[in-house]
Each structure stands twice: as structure tokens, then as C-alpha cells.
Amino acid sequence: MALPTAKAAPFASQPHGRGNLLRRPPSSAPAPAAALRLGPLFWPWEKVKVGPLSVSPMGFGTWAWGNQLLWGYQESMDSELQECFNLALKNGINLFDTADSYGTGKLNGQSERLLGKFIREFEGPIKSPDDVVIATKFAAYPWRLTSGQFVNACKSSLERLQIDRLGIGQLHWSTANYAPLQERVLWDGLVEMYAKGLVRAVGVSNYGPKQLLKIHGYLASRGVPLSSAQVQFSLLSMGDEQMELKSVCDSLGVRLIAYSPLGLGMLTGKYDASNLPNGPRSVLFRQILPGLESLLSCLGSIAERKGKTMSQVAINWCICKGAVPIPGVKTVKHVEDNLGALGWRLSPSEISELEAAAMDSPKKMLQNIFQTA
Q: Which residue intervals make up region (Disordered) (predicted)?
């Protein structure tokens, strides 16, 4: 099934307020001086390139859509999740990240099913593949031992999404650390799904700089460009390896997609040692939050000066570093707040201020156990 078409919807107003939605400025409006000095302001309709794709400078992640264990998903949330999708698309966001493993228990694959449903039921313009770019990740399950099985996984995702072709097909993680013989099979699976036209671009997730160079070289030898590398990247995840990965991406022309740009919520200012989230996150928050006073204070100070929220400042930092952040959304309020991260830029001094505070934090976010060197 091809992506449907529908009627356009206008942008909302007041781009710079806390959590307000966005209005496209008149084409005749002069560029602000800050934009000329610092580069694009990156409104959502000012797309960036991910390989052959044109995507909004921020996308949205859908890890929570179907995950009961970590994010408390219930099917009663689906109507608001549809509103989240509609609001994002109407305001220029066209990149939505998911995975074939998203969803717990019987709800495995629920994130993809919901995205497909929301695309079909969206009352707005979907005229070309670039209007909605779905990036999904394929798990390196131990029973996926042939490239054909990996291609079949892609076909299953397309069936759940009910679309003809993915925007980006991604390896969810590398098996180099524990099953190196499986790795080449997975790479060949990417080559096959690209050759068969099942994906418009290919990418990886949780690859470190050394392994990224290897897969980039292998794919290039097969005539397949590597378009993206998705990794945990935020003010809490900016260690030497993450910054080296960013440099490697820049040198190869690979776009870095930043998941968990808000540190699972630690950078929102919503939580402290006496107010922790429910579920497994509380254990991690209890370990890390007490050492983040300096960073959270810095985020709060800059947010106050700029009339922004702490979340918006943290996401804007990722954008200023050249990454495409994909914060997760569960509510309309999340979408509204995240949209306020666009249309402006932190100054160089503010970026330095934030990074100094982050480096001074005694504890950092734990890296994904699947990330390779």
C-alpha cells in the first residue's frame, strides 16, 4: 500500500514561546542576524539530508508506543498518540523512528502497527515518500542467521506499517562483541533489502567509531551508501567515544541520529532525588540525578534567559552539534514542548557553558550495553 494523500493543515502560531507551535515565516522576511552568523535556525520545514532523504532537523522516537515495562503503555493511549503524530506532521516533522522489537510481550511490533495506522488515518497532505520518513531498526536476534531472514524481517515491518518502502532500514545493534560471525550476514541483509528496493536508505544503531568504519567500507564495496548512525547522544552522553563517533560520521558524510537526547527524562528538569519516575528508570535516576545539579542549573539558567524550557535547550544543543535528535513522545504536551526546540539556536558561548557543566558532572548516562567500539 502506498502512502495516502490528504488535505493540508496550517502551521500554528508563536514560534518562540514555551511549548508553542510553529508558523512558517513569510518568504520575504529577512533572515535574522543571528542566523547569518551562526547558520540555519532549523525550522522544521528547513530539511536536512540523511543520505538521499530530506528530513526535519528533529524527528520523534516511538520506543514508548507499546512498551508497558519501561513507559507504562496502555492501548487507551492510542487516541492521544494519533494526536501526537498528527500534530507533529502538521508542524513539519516528517521523521519517525521505530524498531521491529518495540513493544513488550504480546504487543511486540506495536510501535510499527500504530505508525502505519496513524499514517493511514492522518487528515493532512501526504503526497510523496519524503512527507513521512519511517526509520525502523531490525533486531540482531540470534535466530537471524541468514541475509534472507533479515530481508524477511524488513518485509514483516513493511506489512505492520502497511507501506511499500521504508525511509531508512537500520541494524539495531552490532553483534561484533559476542557473535562476530553473524555480523557479515546482517550487513548482507542490509545490502539485499536496499537492492530489492525495500528501503530508500540504510543505517546502523549503537555502532561505535571503529565498527562504523568497517561497515561503511563494506557497504561501499557493495555499492550501498551508509546514510545514518543512530546512537545515544546528549549532554549526558558526550564522552570521548560519542564525540569520536560524531567526527567519524562527519568525515564519512553519515548523519548522526541522536536517541535519548533528554537522557530518558533527566534533562527535562521534571525530576529530582525526591521525585523519581515510576518503573525501572527510577533505579538509574537515583544513581545519576544527585550529581547533575550543575548541569541542570546551567540548563535552567539558559532556558530562563531564552524563554525556553530545559528540554528545548537540551534538544537544541543536539541540533547545534549537527545531529538529528529523536526525543520520544507520549502526549500532545510532549510534542508541543519539543517543537519549541526548533527555529532558534544556542550561541557558541551557551554551547560551551553547557558542555563545561556536563563535563563537570560526576556521573554520566550509562552507555547502551550493545554499543560497540
A: 1-28
Q: What are the φ/ψ torsions at residue 111 (nearest 5 degrees)? A: -60, -45
Inter-CA distances, 126 with 99, 100, 163, Å: 22, 23, 13
Q: What are the DSSP calls for 229-253, one per residue? A: EEEE-BTTB-SHHHHHHHHHHHHHT
Q: Which residues are catalytic?
A: 102
First-last CA distance in the chain? 39
- For residues 81 and 114, is the Cβ–Cβ distance under 8 A? yes
Q: Residue 117: what residue type?
A: K
Q: Fill in the amino acid letter for 327.
A: P
Residues 6+ apart with CB under 8 A from 219: 187, 190, 191, 202, 225, 226
Radius of gyration of the chain (CA): 20
pLDDT digits (tens, 9 = 90+) for 55-65: 999 999 998 88
78: its cell numbers: 492510542
- Residues 6 or more apart whose Cβ sits within 8 Å of residue 151: 189, 192, 193, 196, 198
Q: Taking phi first (over 0 means left), then psi (-120 to 50 degrees means alpha), and beta for anything else, what does residue 264 get?
A: left
Give the model confidence (pLDDT) of 313-362 as tens digits.
999 999 999 999 999 999 999 999 999 999 999 999 999 999 999 998 87
Domains defined for the chain, CATH in brackets: 46-265+321-345 (3.20.20.100)
- Type of residue numbered 366: L
